[in-house]
Write a structure and sequence with these properties.
The complex is a heterodimer of chains A (about 100) and B (about 250). Chain A is built from 1 helix and 1 strand. Chain A is an all-alpha fold and about 100 residues long. The longest helix of chain A has about 50 residues. Chain A is rod-shaped, with a radius of gyration of 32 Å. The termini of chain A are far apart. Chain B is mainly alpha-helical and about 250 residues long. Chain B starts with a strand and ends with a helix. Classes of the chains: A mainly alpha (about 100), B mainly alpha (about 250). At the A-B interface, helix 1 and strand 1 of A face strand 1, helix 1, helix 2, helix 3 and helix 6 of B. Strand 1 of chain A pairs antiparallel with strand 1 of chain B, so a sheet runs across the interface.
């Protein structure tokens, strides 16, 4: 198969530039790592990175939901207390009316 | 329930639907992995290590797409001061940086076998590293800034300025050469099984990235809602205190 995307570069070939990377692969033959090991490592790292992100985001979301629920309950309690004190059930009309309202 | 003037309504995405999308995306990625492992022949020249290619390139697509999306939403936030655009930009930059990390981890593993070196400072690699570091810098600025509004605007401006570099990554080989092949159209994958693996991997990665974006976006919107309610509660308590003082 001719696969231009995967062929190792040839020093001095058109479209390549000199880089710090060694080009003579024979010099590395003895210390070559098995390709299967590298591929397996790549896919393990892929899942490790995605799994860690997913886990962290799920935890953050659960914490955000809990904090929001607690705050809404606190807000409800404050309103209920205020309503009991004024006997009017709503403070919306007593201030500047800037957006306070009871949700349905 | 008492709510302030709803400038940012509660996030609409249902958690069950969101989790279902994530499970489906993971299923698609697994299907791609199975096709790569069992139905795709190894490369004649490089052998089995070439199988890194499928998710390496798909991650590069995801990184570029989501970083450009993040920069676009940052620009929108700078112009329109939209909380939704801000949350979307932050989520997109984060997911872009996530797949950038995958790109920068899988690349050296493949390069070690095919180039004989873990890393070379050729233009495409250097620009990819630079963009990843810029994305992380924006996210750190957003997360650690003492002045949230300043951090938001400075981060958005930085993201917008980094966008052209993302595009340059795509053009780097054509413009300056390097070890990467110059594949702007058509691609070098010829075998039908390899093509199926490649497009399955691209579809899987982009679907998973979109699902992660939706999950993170929802969480950021919940945080925005929390901050809004905190301010509302403080304003309410202040108003109630005044009312109590004025009442006989």
């Amino acid at each position: 198969m001719s696969n231009a995307a995967t062929e190792p570069p040839v020093a001095g070939a058109a479209g390549t530039v000199a880089s710090a990377g060694p080009r003579d692969l024979s010099a590395y033959k003895e210390e070559q790592i098995a390709g299967g090991d590298l591929a397996a490592a790549a896919y393990l790292l892929l899942w490790a990175i995605i799994g860690a992100y997913l886990w962290r985001t799920a935890r953050r979301q659960a914490a955000a939901e809990a904090a929001l629920q607690a705050l809404e309950q606190r807000l409800d309690a404050e309103l209920a207390r205020a309503a009991g004190r004024t006997g009017q059930g709503d403070l919306a009309g007593q201030g500047d009316g800037a957006g306070w309202e009871r949700a349905p | 329930m008492t709510l302030p003037n709803p400038s940012s309504p509660a996030p609409a995405a249902a958690p069950v639907g969101l989790w279902l999308a994530i499970v489906l995306a993971i299923g698609l990625v697994e299907a791609a992995l199975a096709h790569i492992a069992f139905a795709t022949p190894p490369d004649v020249a490089l052998g089995v290590v070439q199988k890194i290619f499928y998710f390496h390139v798909a991650s590069a697509f995801a990184m570029l797409l989501f970083l450009v999306l993040g920069a676009s939403l940052s620009a929108l936030d700078l112009v329109a001061a939209s909380d939704r655009a801000d949350a979307g930009a932050r989520a997109a930059l984060e997911v872009g940086a996530l797949f950038g990390a995958i790109l920068l981890v899988t690349g050296p593993l493949w390069a070690r076998k095919s180039w004989g070196a873990w890393w070379t400072f050729e233009p495409r690699l250097t620009l990819s590293l630079l963009v990843e570091l810029l994305a992380l810098a924006v996210l750190m600025l957003r997360g650690l800034s003492a002045d949230a509004q300043l951090g938001r605007r400075a981060g958005a401006a930085m993201a917008v300025m980094a966008a052209p570099i993302s595009v340059l990554i795509h053009l780097a080989v054509k413009l300056w050469g390097g070890n990467h092949p110059s594949v702007l159209q058509g691609g070098g994958v010829q075998s039908p099984a390899m093509r199926i693996s490649f497009w399955l991997a691209v579809a899987g990665v982009l679907t998973l990235a979109s699902a992660l974006l939706a999950l993170r976006y929802r969480q950021l919107r919940l945080d925005q809602r929390h901050r809004e309610l905190e301010l509302a509660l403080a304003a309410f308590q202040l108003r109630r205190g005044r009312h109590a003082e004025e009442s006989p």
